[in-house]
Amino acid sequence: MPSYSGKLFLLLWLLMLTLAAAITIDEQCMHSIDSCDRCLSTHLNCAWCTDKKYQVRSRCLSRATLLNFNCSEANIYENQPQLEVLQQKPLKDYESSDEHSVQVKPQRVFLKLVKGNTQRLKLSYRGALNNPLDLYVLMDLTWTMRDDKDTLEQLGEQLTKTLRNLTNNYRLGFGSFADKPAMPMIMPQLRDNPCAAERESCEPTYGYRHQLQLTEDIKAFTNAVRNSKITGNLDNLEGGLDALMQVMVCPQQIGWKQQARKVVILVTDGFMHFAGDGRLAGIAERNDRQCHLNEAGEYTGSLVYDYPSLEQIYRELLRRKINVIFAVTEEVFLTYKEMSGLMQEISNVEILSADSSNILELIKKSYESFIKRTQFGDNSPEFIKMEYYTDCAGQFPNLRPRNYCNNVNLGKEVEFYVDITLTDYPKNGSLYHKIRVEETSLNEYMDIEVELQRPCPCVEEPQPDDEYGRFQCDEQGYLNCGMCVCDEGWTGTFCNCPTDPSNATTNEALLRTCRLPLDSLGSSLSHLVCSNHGECDCGSCKCDTGHTGEFCECLECFDCDEERAECHCGQCVCKYGWSGTRCNCAESTEGCIGPTGEI
């Protein structure tokens, strides 16, 4: 059991730690005396006093300390971050009565951001049961896919059963594609019957044909598949990306529902043409990502615009919140797998059997994969940093830095924590911004209304003749918002530095000379003035007790014996013949030799 003196020592030690912790904020704040802006950006808890009767040298301290030093409470400016939830409807499954579900909460938040300070928001997501599904079947109808068309045509009742097991609210649409009807994608002499080489008759080659708008009528879907015509082209490269682009950018013609999960299943046994391939046919104009379907559903831009790039496809899938399933044969699977890997959050690739008999299984597997995955993104400007953390509903023991989760069962609530930091002020000076955090595949989002705290909110009427204000500025300026506004010919924090040709002409220029260079050329400087261990006096650092160096970057040496060592930036460097942490050990062995000469 410790003695009374031991307990007393322990108590004093804890008290010293408490006091040290209490003054840490003031130590960080006290040297930011040149401006209110720098004071408030030094630490979240730094406050600035504008009281003209305030008599302490540093106007930048914690709020409590300023009050203790008799700064009027009405004249204290401080950082005031805010977080207020404006709208938070509870999560709910899809209901046909209002055709609506709520899968993200909160829906609206107000944030007041302070530069350098991070605020954390909690975002909750739960996938809704019976959420609508819009499934558009986009099928390659070139000659080698004729048996796949026959299979799809016969799946009506089975398709209904499969979709009802996924959701009670589904709609189907159908479209087909081949390729651009131009050389070298087709042979000119086979333009009217591209299947003549197979001694068969088929439809002239077309780029893309929208056959059926999204509908709940399964019979209409089956009839649309039955009435579609097989066509052909010359090579095993198809115009599927042309078709996929039109399916995305023609929402009215396709009939996409905003609330639904939108899925395109692209069925093919061939490879794809990409941007640039159109030049082979003399088509050089870049794909314009606009809708070009006529009343009959024909793509009229096939011979006008080049194929889209994969980047264009990816951007539109994200923007339109559409998922794509590439159902492809084994021969081309690896190519599509690489392509899907570049946009994995919104695509999937599955191996299609030779006659497409497993297409229902692929739809079920891919849809379940989509609904078990959630991912969030945002449109934050470059000066606001957004970082996401989650444990994916207990999949991990601790929060991990990620904005997505996989394998989340439908109905399971997932929490994301979003850390939001103002890293700088925008160049245009705008203080009000809107940020949307949205689920990448659904029309579900949280809107954040952001206000940036002004660098310093103080505004005062100038009083250049105020006697006490001039006294605090060395009679060479006057006090405004607690900062000295210097007369012509003077600068510095307290207007005590002349602006002669050999000196800096602004206080900021003086402060630059008191910042530690971070490279040998001096092109990069520390943001700390005098390493935050001293004050900048007319371009030179005056260091606090215990610190030294041109920029107060070094600790003083207290244990170095000047006869045995030299102090270099807080380190004792021993002179020849001495060693040890305090250079108090002689390297000579003369004092250890006995009368007989033995050590």
Automatic annotation (TrEMBL):
Residue span, VWFA domain: 134-270
GO terms for biological process, alphabetical: cell adhesion mediated by integrin; cell migration; cell-cell adhesion; cell-matrix adhesion; integrin-mediated signaling pathway
GO cellular component, one term: focal adhesion
Pfam families in alphabetical order: EGF_2 (PF07974), Integrin_beta (PF00362), PSI_integrin (PF17205)
The keyword Transferase belongs to this UniProt entry's keyword annotation: no
PROSITE patterns, alphabetized: I_EGF_1, I_EGF_2, VWFA
Gene3D superfamilies: Laminin, ligand-binding face of the semaphorins, domain 2, ntegrin, alpha v. Chain A, domain 3, von Willebrand factor, type A domain
Signal peptide region: 1-22
Alphabetically ordered keywords of this record: Cell adhesion, Cell membrane, Disulfide bond, EGF-like domain, Glycoprotein, Integrin, Membrane, Repeat, Signal, Transmembrane, Transmembrane helix
Classification via InterPro entries: EGF_extracell, Integrin_beta_N, Integrin_bsu, Integrin_bsu_VWA, Integrin_I-EGF_CS, VWF_A, vWFA_dom_sf
Stated family: Belongs to the integrin beta chain family.
Full protein name: Integrin beta
Lineage of producing organism: Eukaryota, Metazoa, Ecdysozoa, Arthropoda, Hexapoda
